[in-house]
Amino acid sequence: MSLASARPWHHARAWQTNLALILLGSGLFLLTLQLISEYRRFTIGFSGVSGWSVVLYLSAILIIRSQPADRYTFGIILTFAIAFRLVTLVPAPYLSSDIYRYAWDGVVQHAHISPYRYVPGDPALQFLRGPNQELFDHINRRDYAHTIYPPVAQFLFYVITFINPTMTFMKTAMILFEGLTLFALLKLLRELGVRREQSLLYAWCPLLVWEIGSSGHLDSVALAFMGLALLARYRRQPILTGLFLGLAIMTKMYPLVLFPALFRRGEYKMPAALVVVVAVGYACYSSVGMKVFGFLGGYVHEEGMDTGTHYFLRELTQHLPGLHTLSVKSYFVFVTIVFTVLIIWCWRTCCNPAWPKVNSAQTRVFGLPTEADFVIPAFSLAFTLMLLFSPRYPWYVAWLVPFVTIVPDLTAFAYICGLFYMCTTSLAVGSGPSQFLLNKCLYGGVFFAFLLDIILRRWPIHRRHFTLEPENVR
């Protein structure tokens, strides 16, 4: 075959796409097996597993975003997504022990005791340790920290442990909530006119496989409710939007930042539903008074959020001439200004029913319909929160994955994958200088990705070779 008649790689057929995905999925499956093996015996290390997982994941994204698909493609994606999680289901959590607190809180409630009343090590709970010794032994901060998890999370802990208090079943429940998230994303992608195969960005994300499939983090539940809230907002269902956003907030606090983007002026059923969910949730545990907020204040202090040592951008100013005297209060003022600007943007655009329904720059860039004008503001609020508050644990950024599934963004991918990888390196073990160096590498990579994204969006070859107009939407 001559070069003139050769078929360019970006004009591959669907069966070639499927073959490539099978190969990449098999590689990710083997790496997931290797992750479990690393729990017992060092081979290539967690950083080796995470690094290669990111490479294969990004390769799969490039293929699914640029190549044709057929009726078999989604089945391949879903089969491997399930396989990744089944591998992580049975082995005990290794990278995080938070799941043991979930189960313990459920056990305490079965004894008709509020989980907010006592720390796990309190003598008042001595009678629960015998039949639940394994849970107790693995709880972190058990001697000084009350539970930090909000009421909806506590209700779920109660229900899950009522059925089966084992770690395997708790992880199963978290994976099932991932299925609910995927369901919401598939519905939303369909209504946005995006082919369902783009759900690979969520289904194959190694961060989710590690932090939800392996460690069983509660963020899975918040993601599910958040995904349903986004779907309800697109469908103009204010009561359901408020209900699901309230459930997300009462599971993990951070989805509260999405409120300015999901609210529409004149539709007060949405905030009313949200307030009802929050009020009912806290009323159910009001017998303990202010203890219902648990270890939140202690966690803020422990992580350095009150002293400013937690925030990379603030720490960075301490190394810049003329800014090294910047106080924590000044940084909080800066954060307030940033979010004020974002809230005003939301108020004038997606919150305004009278906003002209024409393709804005944000919807044109990502190919969204005008009815989805809230997606980019919501994504911006979530991403900005993460950048400004510099989470140290990868599961805190899991809630960005549904957004990049809807609107793939190179900068956000660099942040998500970068933090996931960096947290498996030796830099994540220490604090202070090592944590600062980790964030310098991470934020430097994010800034480079931001510049690269600008260049690619203005490079004509980029659109022809690396994007594919939505087709065969099912």
Automatic annotation (TrEMBL):
Key words of the record: Membrane, Transmembrane, Transmembrane helix
Keyword Transmembrane helix attached: yes
Pfam family, one: MptA_B_family
A GO CC annotation given for this chain: plasma membrane
A molecular function (GO) term: hexosyltransferase activity
Identification of the protein by name: DUF2029 domain-containing protein
Domain of life: Bacteria
Membrane-spanning residues: 12-36, 42-64, 76-95, 243-263, 270-288, 331-351, 372-390, 410-429, 441-459
